[in-house]
Amino acid sequence: MSVEPSPLRIAIRFPSYAAAPWRERCLASLAAARHVEISCLAATTPLEQIDLILDLSSRPIDPNQLRQTRHLGYWTFLYGAVPERIEPGLQEFVAGGRAAYARLVRVDTPDMCTVLREGAVKRVAHSVKATRTRLLEAIVDWPARVLLENPAPTAPSIRYTRHRFVSRLVLYLGFPFAWVRNVLTRLAQEGTREHWAVGVIPKPVQQVCQSFDPASIRWLPAPTDGFLADPFGLPLPDGTLVILAEALSWRDGRGRIVALESKPDGAVTTPRDVFDITGHASYPQLIQHDGATYCIPETSAQRRVQLYRADPFPNRWVADTVLLEDFAGADATVHCHAGRWWLFVGNHADQDEAKLFIFHAADLRGPWLPHAANPVKCDLRSSRPAGPLFYLGAVLCRPAQDCSVTYGGAVVINQIDKLTPHEFAEKPLKHLRPAPQGPYPDGLHTLSAAGNVTLVDGKRHTWSGAALARRLGLLRP
């Protein structure tokens, strides 16, 4: 006869700014993760009967509660680029940062804590309330996820700040100035034109990761009326490198998939359209499987992830299989690992720069099943795919975009430590950043292995009054 395990006794305190539906979701996730008994955290709570204090508010910590020894300790949220007990999104709104940060921590001393889970979302420029809502939505089930996964024994320790009344008052007094600055900054961004170009590095991706030198990039000619980005390549037996990329025209803002060849003598052919897709298309990942060549271009406006087959490569592509239906996939990237296919993707309908979703299947054509922990992470610094997965020795690596400063600002190489239908864990291994004094100093958001060479793309910002006028509806496309 089996004995039901004793419930985990949790004393919880919610923040005043959290709406009732959020509180209910948090409690439901805890109940789904473990057999729990929930009580409200108060000054009179009998701590000797509590296994975990879960203080989700930003109120001062009671030293007496912190000194009590419990099974799992005292957990709380810290917010901001500089971790502190403060309202979510407040620090970034006043500072003007693009990313809004959250950390679930175990408080060890009045000044030190252990990070249990962390991430970041894109700040909403004009509203600290909207930023707070976005952050809270992302972290509502973090305590439950950590209970399921168990805190890592080597989790990092950090020092955190406790705001006093005067310093917090200074923050609030800066609100009017911050709001005006953030709105003007956002308006200026609407008039910024992105110039992307494709670059070739004459080294395999493993060597690039070990010693990345932006000066070694050979930049291919960029179109005068738009840009090239999201390169994927396939080397041919004669030494020609076929590159598929997104070509975008500033006249209509629509991306198309084009093919070009880089010849052994360095000559580059003119890009030509190779896909018959009416809407916007980008990120044409190439896959070779069972003697055929496939491609998964991003077509998020169609709300599906579609597999195409070359017939023949690279000039004609036919629709093969819909991998995901009713899912606005962003930068879908597939990889076969440990006898199973894995699909890493963002969702244009749900914070595509910050959240990562995984699907898995026994065959490339599916059926594809969602990962049990979707979205598996929410971090503006290292979630959105940035190219095909590859191995460094026996380590599986996943390139991702760092969008914390600007969209596609840098590439992060993540080391995947766990990848099963129910578990996923990865950690940053290396950052690849553009050369500040190079021709494309403002972004790097693709790292694509192509045989003995590696493809990247780079970004340069310029100001365009015409672009701003089009964004404001003053000019027709």
Describe the structure.
With 477 residues, the chain is an alpha+beta fold. The protein folds into two domains: 8-187, Rossmann fold; 196-471, Glycosyl hydrolase domain, family 43 (Tachylectin-2, Chain A), CATH 2.115.10.20. Helix content is 17%, strand content 40%. It contains nine helices and 28 strands. The protein has helices at 20-33, 63-67, 90-95, 128-139, 142-149, 165-173, 175-190, 205-210, 465-471, and strands at 8-13, 36-40, 52-55, 73-79, 99-107, 112-122, 157-159, 192-201, 218-219, 226-235, 241-249, 255-262, 272-273, 282-289, 292-298, 304-310, 317-325, 329-337, 340-347, 355-361, 369-370, 377-378, 390-392, 395-402, 410-419, 424-432, 447-450, 453-463. The strands form six sheets. A seven-stranded mixed sheet has the order 2-1-3-4-5-6-7. Helix 1 runs parallel beside helix 5. The longest helix is centred in the middle third of the chain and has 16 residues, at 175-190. It is globular. The mean pLDDT is 91.
Give short descriptive properties of this protein.
477 residues, alpha+beta, Rossmann fold, Tachylectin-2, Chain A, 2 domains, 7-stranded mixed sheet, 9 helices, globular
> Spatial order of the strands in the main sheet?
2-1-3-4-5-6-7
Could you tell me the strand content as a percent range? 35-45%
Number of strands: 28
Can you tell me the CATH architecture of the largest domain? 5 Propeller
Largest sheet: 7 strands, mixed
Look up the CATH topology of the largest domain. Answer: Tachylectin-2, Chain A
Distance between the termini: 72 Å
Helix content: 10-25%
The average pLDDT is 91
Net shape: globular
Gyration radius, in Å? 24 Å
CATH class of the largest domain: Mainly Beta
Count of discrete alpha- or pi-helical segments spanning 4 or more residues: 9
CATH superfamily heading of the largest domain? Glycosyl hydrolase domain, family 43
Structural class: alpha+beta
Q: How many separate domains?
A: 2
